[in-house]
Amino acid sequence: MKQMLKLAVSTLLVTLVTTATAQVFNTTRSPKGDKEWPVVKEGVTVKVSPHVYAIPSESVPGVPNVGIIVGSKATMIIDPGMGRLSGEAVAREMAKVSKNTEVYVVTTHLHPEHTTGELAFPQAKIIRAAAEQKDIDESGMYWVNIFSKRSPERAEILKGATFRTADEIFEREKTVDLGGVRVRMLYVGPAHTLGDTAFYIEEDRVLFPGDLAMKEIFPAFAMPQSSMRSWLTSLEMLERLKPAHVIGSHGDLADGSILSANHELLSTLQTRTLALKREGKTAEATGKLLVEEFKTKYPAWDQPVRVISAVDAIYKENP
Ligand SMILES: [Zn+2]
């Protein structure tokens, strides 16, 4: 009996020490779990192709899939995550795969979980599409406040968050040579936002389409400027690139098939919306009806409630 008690006490001690050690080392992790602590996770970086690495979001809300593109002379970070803590985690992951001192930080759109990690890269060059810059100027800090109000943890992560001044602005397209690998930056908005930007790594045939194509997640029409018409046109343009890997800004890493899957879903949604509109239904009624219809038609897809804002955008575009 005495022996068993001794064993139990020592097991308890080991458990306590292990837990305490884990907390000391994992200073950027919340004791309450990933869902409440949307900071980019370390130690999970995967190699996608010869020059491209990704830090998967593991579908944690508020965490994007992060890209790290490594050339012989420079490195590019795509979407450094939310807040300085995320950016610092990304910088440590980058250091494991690249010794380059020349660093670019680029983002798929203005939302804080894609952009505000850039604060951890004070020396990096920031390049943005003119339309994304416009989004940031008009509503960047508005979105930081909205995100901060969602939970005390997000407020903590976003404390002091601002946007860095861009070093370079481009209109429709810009190619950056990282040494042995080129990244084409393509303006693809207005879709999820006004300023959506996609990144195509030509030599490796890897595409980062932002929120325009995610694996089995309904697309979000998040801004007043969001447009179904230009979303479809941009997806068609991205499909013509024939990428081998497609890394949406959230959700699982995927291949080229998610571009056509998203295109099919959106064009079906457009056709159904316009048919109901012709019958004289209001946008509100059509939205309610189609949420249910698309839940049944696309049961594997997350966030079907987003159908409502898509319907609104289609009504606005087709007065
Ligand atoms: Zn977004």
Task: Give a structural overview.
- The protein is an alpha/beta fold and 319 residues long.
- It has a domain at 34-256: Metallo-beta-lactamase, Chain A (4-Layer Sandwich), CATH 3.60.15.10.
- The chain is built from nine helices and twelve strands.
- The protein has helices at residues 2-25, 83-97, 112-115, 130-148, 152-157, 228-240, 257-278, 283-297, 307-317, and strands at 46-49, 52-55, 66-70, 74-78, 102-106, 125-129, 168-170, 173-177, 182-187, 197-201, 206-208, 245-246.
- Strand 10 and strand 11 form a beta hairpin.
- Helix 7 packs across helix 8 (283-297), helix 7 (257-278) packs across helix 9 and helix 8 (283-297) packs across helix 9 (307-317).
- The longest helix has 24 residues, at 2-25.
- The radius of gyration is 22 Å and the shape is globular.
- The model is unreliable at 4-31 (pLDDT under 50).
- Bound molecules: zinc ion.
- The site of zinc ion (ZN) has 5 residues, from loops.
Descriptors for this entry?
five-stranded mixed β-sheet; seven-stranded mixed β-sheet; single chain; alpha/beta; 319 residues; Metallo-beta-lactamase, Chain A; globular; binds zinc ion
Helix content: 40-55%
Q: Report mean pLDDT, rounded to a whole number.
A: 91
If you compute it from the alpha carbons, what radius of gyration comes out, rounded to the nearest whole angstrom?
Answer: 22 Å
- By secondary-structure content and strand pairing, the structural class works out as alpha/beta
Helical region count? 9
Q: Quote the beta fraction.
A: 15-25%
Please report the total strand number as a whole number. 12
Q: Give unreliable regions as ranges.
A: 4-31
Strand order of the largest sheet: 1-2-3-4-5-6-7
The biggest beta sheet is recorded as: 7 strands, mixed
Q: Indicate the CATH class of one domain.
A: Alpha Beta
Separation of the first and last Cα atoms: 81 Å
CATH fold naming of one domain: Metallo-beta-lactamase, Chain A
Query: What CATH architecture of one domain do you see?
Result: 4-Layer Sandwich
Run of helices and strands: HEEEEHEHEHHEEEEEHEHHH
Shape: globular
